[in-house]
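A quick aside before the break. I want you to see a complete sequence-to-structure record at least once, exactly as it would be stored in a machine-readable document. Don't worry about memorizing anything.
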Amino acid sequence: MVGTSDMVFLSATELSARMKAGELSPLEVTEAYLERIAAVDSKVNSYVTLCADEALEAARQAGSEIAAGRYRGPMHGVPIAIKDQIHTEGILTTDGSRVRAGFIPQEDATVVTRLKDAGAVLLGKLNMSEFALGEPVSSLTGPARNPWDLERTPGGSSTGSGAATAAFLCATSLGEDTGGSIRNPAANCGLAGLRPSWGRVSRYGVDGACWSIDTVGPISRTVSDCAMTLGAIAGHDPRDPYSSPAPVQDYLGGLTGDVKGLRVGLVREFLDTPDLGVGQATRDAVLSAAEVLRGQGADVMDVSLPMVVFSGPVTRTISHVERVSIHPDWLRERGEEHHYVTRVGFTTANLLPGHVYLKALRLREMIRREVLGAFDRVDVLVHPIASAPAGRLVEHPTVASKEQAYAALVEGSFRGPYSLSGAPAICVPCGFEDGLPLSLQIAGRPFDEPTVLRAAHAYEQATEWHRRRPPI
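That is the input. The structure line, written in tokens, reads:
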């Protein structure tokens, strides 16, 4: 028998199975999460808006439906939370900014509609860096904090999604990823975070950052939770012309644990390039992870992708220019309402010459071809998601030198190749350094999420890293 206080520590997949079997009710699970939020969230600051009454009503309805045999699927009754740039009808949606402090959408984003149709229970809206840009301190409600160390960043820009999921304040969550805003918080917080293929998930009703890169995806505690969440939100949407008509596959059912014969490419540039500054603990953890996959029967080989080390600056250039172009009037007319960090980023993007943006687009195509070409030789690519574990929260971020600015740009190169190529990529914990999670990134061909998830799940099940809990 699971005690009330222990329910929140079950994975979303486990909760789903127990609710379907009638061993737990959606109402008691939702009540347990609301109690946990009341006790813990003042420390991590992950929620912007808590929808307690609505969640309890949705949980009662889910319980009645399940009991009556009207089971909607694995998300039925599962408590979720979503990043605050995703529109929710009648519920505040701030984008982490004073500019949007009073914005209440008139309809749900497609991903919210699909989650509701699947029977999920919406607990609330989650903190984020302002306009999905910059440091956690830029948020309207102050920074979310990393549950592993409250003085550390949870990673941007889906700060609250990472913090809430790691602190057991929701069963699974949604983030949005441009240059790594799903994968970075997931990695920093010891979670599984999946950036789906570009076009796999509708972006209708999601405040954009970069139309040619943005995607919505899950931040979860396990790979199976990621697969379950993705299954609920994936698929073509007529209201998003860039969403793909490719069939949605059975992501959860594809987690067989079998990776025998899988061709795994270990990208050497992300281990051996001095400018990327990969720490020894990170390097060792990723190499050990590759050996785990080899021990499971995968064919692990070295792969060289020389252009990927430039993907951080390229991603940042494209995304900043496209981001500020969405609402240029906000910067001109309401600049004082932006956090200093955001204002500097947007102003810098406005000053970039057109030929710099054009060069970034050309480099993007070169990187895209290099990444996608690698999948002629391997099924998945693996490498670190970052050079080191989560850094400290900085109250007043500054750039003191060109070297510091360059280091920040190239750090994005760990995540940029898949932002630029539109390929799916997931991160899973692969070790710890000084009590902070380290993470492995696994990427695959566009719309081959099943292979990416299968490889990540096989590694996860062969290790214990995902079972550790933060000390909060």
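Two observations worth writing down. The chain has a mean pLDDT of 96. DSSP finds 16 helices and eleven strands in the chain. We'll return to this after the break.
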